[in-house]
Design goal:
Shape of chain B: globular
CATH superfamily of the domain at 1-93 in chain B: RNA polymerase sigma factor, region 2, helix turn helix motif
CATH class of the domain at 1-93 in chain B: Mainly Alpha
Shape of chain A: elongated
Number of strands of chain B: 0
Radius of gyration of chain A: 35 Å
CATH architecture of the domain at 1-93 in chain B: Orthogonal Bundle
Radius of gyration of chain B: 18 Å
Order of helices and strands of chain A: HHHHHEEHEEHHEEHEEHEEHE
Distance between the termini of chain B: 48 Å
Order of helices and strands of chain B: HHHHHHHHHH
CATH topology of the domain at 1-93 in chain B: Rna Polymerase Sigma Factor, Chain: A
Oligomer: heterodimer
Mean pLDDT of chain A: 58
Structural class of chain A: alpha+beta
Strand order of the largest sheet of chain A: 8-11-10-9
Strand content of chain B: under 5%
Low-confidence stretches of chain B: 101-108
Largest interface: A-B, 57 and 76 residues
Chain lengths: 426, 189
């Protein structure tokens, strides 16, 4: 045995046969350097084996029983709540709906009263664009002229809660509403057609004969979702109404009849409470921010397994619902599972799908035993069905396979350092 | 009462049976957690967490494997959670292994001289600190194999990996440990 082989044997000490260990001893007896290596190694292992045990604290069981008592109470109260909800769920839902309606009316109260104050005849008929509590300003100059203007007095709507002026200026030529356009609130209190500056998205569709049809108030008001729902930022094209800073200009705009019926192509309406785009909730470049749930999941009759979950798109709520329905959560303080698409992370916190590409080494079924014997004789870790080693080791494995006459196909080592591979038989 | 009797009673929700079962295993669970977490307080917290999980999910234990295997798997998973949280929180645990281990070194070998005991204590502290620098899968394998002295088959069942992989992982973990301990090499010669 030479020093190089000795080093390799030392790295694989646990896998060595008694004969191989004896060979090492013989070499160590003749080589001082290798002797020192072996002594260091053996001393390290014996020290690890000698590490003293710690005793449980005297109050360990008392503390544990306190926690178990709390656990019992939690389970009882949870089942009580479930029973209560089963019995009174409909009443709660009705109450919630009423509250939501009150909230919408309250939120729009100032809008309503302002109009009452500014319109001499008490007539209000205009469109206001509301998007998740913040309407967007619009530049009146960029608005297309309505095609069927009437001679009614113009009332300009300038009640805007808040806006980002930089986002508010519509791009010229952008007139089509997008799916994420702000919600349109159409109101009309009289049958008299009147004019105002129309919203840009709605204008092309609001030139028809609907002006005289009274529409029920709030008939297409989008209620902001109670849970984590956001309407995404509207594009400039969606911005429609004049800003508070531009009321006079708006007043001078050419009039258009009011649309009083919702158009199916218009902005989102009540039925849409979960927008497709949830980017507003994603923190920028903060991976920890994505990792919103860490739960130990009790899976069937197996031990609790840990799933480190990462929300990628919060709009996909199904997966979380699935997890909550099918598993009981037993995590500690990070149990909250939010809506989202979850991917299992590897030990470094990287989604497994994003990890380095994994190649496959294919063997014939006839060679299964011999191939596995060769592979297992080297230092190879296995994570599920993926083998992990380094490129040097894998080269050794491949050359050993070749020298043993075990054919394999379709595999080339890509790069150096840690490599992962699967083994397949055909 | 046999372990199986206790488990049967636990499945019926008998708290006394739980207490009896947990008392049997508290030391092992705390020490596996200590091996993984290198911190006495965290180890006790993790052990509490383990037993709460067992309490909540004992009905799902179908006795295909031994109770200890199931329990140690939960322990390993729980400690992994602790490590990940610690990593995420950026917490650095100061290893005071010498203080922890030193209290008990004289129980081990009454015939050793004071110097020898001191040297052993230093080596133990160095090894404990080095283990805390290992990556998670290496910590658990060193803890189960070298510190707790479990067999390959039991380790394979706990970690759900083939026995052959247990050996190769031990080899890799020891190589990594050796690398870390190179700076304290003189303690081991």
């Amino acid at each position: 045995m030479d020093c190089e082989s000795f080093g390799k044997y030392l790295d694989n000490y646990e896998s060595l046969t008694e004969q191989e260990k004896s060979d090492m001893e013989k070499h160590a007896a003749e080589c001082e350097e290798c002797r020192a290596e072996l002594d260091f190694f053996m001393s390290m292992i014996s020290t690890a084996k000698s590490l003293p045990k710690i005793e449980p604290p005297a109050d360990f069981m008392d503390k544990l029983n306190t926690r178990l008592d709390a656990e019992d109470k939690r389970v009882v109260s949870a089942s009580k709540i479930k029973g209560h909800l089963r019995r009174y769920g409909i009443q709660y839902a009705a109450a919630a709906a009423c509250l939501a309606l009150v909230a919408v009316i309250t939120a729009n109260r100032s809008l309503l009263t302002d109009r009452m104050d500014t319109v001499p005849d008490g007539i209000i008929s205009e469109e206001t664009t509301v998007s998740d509590g913040s309407a967007r300003d619009g530049a009146q100059d960029n608005m297309p002229a309505p095609s069927t203007a009437t001679a009614a007095p113009t009332v300009s709507e300038s009640n805007v809660q808040s806006s980002d002026a930089s986002k508010a200026v519509p791009a010229e030529g952008d007139t089509e509403p997008t799916e994420n356009a702000p919600v349109t609130v159409a109101r009309q209190r009289t049958g008299i057609p009147r004019t105002s500056t129309p919203s840009v998205p709605a204008a092309p569709r609001q030139t028809s004969n609907t002006a005289n049809e009274p529409a029920p108030a709030f008939d297409n008001v989008s209620i902001p979702a109670v849970t984590e729902t956001h309407v995404s930022e509207p594009s400039p094209a969606e911005v429609s109404i004049p800003t508070a800073e531009q009321p006079d200009e708006a007043n001078g705009a050419e009039a258009a009849p009011i649309s009083s019926t919702p158009n199916e192509n218009d902005a989102p309406v009540m039925t849409r409470s979960v927008p497709d785009d949830y980017t507003a909730e994603k923190p920028d470049d903060d991976e920890d921010g994505y990792r919103i749930a860490l739960a130990s999941v009790v899976n069937g009759d197996d031990a609790p397994e840990t799933y480190d979950l990462r929300a990628e798109e919060v709009s996909e709520s199904l997966k979380a619902a699935e997890i909550q329905a099918n598993y009981s959560l037993a995590g500690t303080d990070n149990n909250d599972i939010a809506r989202g698409k979850y991917s299992k992370l590897n030990k470094d916190g990287i989604p497994i799908a994003d990890a380095t590409a994994i190649g496959s080494i294919k063997f014939s079924y006839d060679d299964e035993e011999r191939a596995m014997a060769v592979i297992n004789s080297y230092t190879v870790d296995k994570e599920d069905d993926i083998y992990v080693t380094d490129s040097v080791n894998l080269n050794l494995i491949l050359s050993k396979l070749r020298s043993e006459g075990i054919p394999y196909t379709d595999y080339t080592i890509a790069g150096s350092g840690e490599v992962k591979f699967q083994i397949k038989f055909k | 009462m046999t372990e199986n009797d206790l488990i049967r009673k636990c499945k019926k929700g008998n708290r006394e049976a739980f207490n009896a079962l947990f008392s049997r295993y508290q030391s092992q669970v705390i020490n596996i957690a200590y091996g993984m977490l290198s911190d006495r307080e965290d180890a006790c917290d993790a052990a509490q967490e383990v037993f709460v999980k067992v309490y909540k999910s004992i009905s799902s234990f179908n006795e295909k494997s031994s109770f200890s295997t199931w329990l140690y798997r939960i322990t390993a998973n729980t400690c992994s959670d602790f490590l990940r949280k610690r990593q995420r929180g950026g917490n650095v645990i100061s290893i005071n292994a010498a203080a922890d281990d030193g209290r008990e070194f004289d129980i081990e070998d009454e015939n050793s001289s004071v110097d020898e005991k001191m040297e052993l204590s230093e080596r133990q502290a160095a090894v404990r600190a080095a283990i805390s620098e290992l990556k998670e899968e290496h910590r658990i394998i060193i803890t189960l194999c070298d510190i707790e002295g479990l067999g390959y088959d039991e380790i394979a069942s706990i970690l759900k990996i083939p026995s052959g992989t247990v050996k190769s992982r031990i080899n890799r973990a020891r190589s990594a440990l050796k690398k870390i301990l190179m700076k304290n090499r003189e303690l081991f010669l």
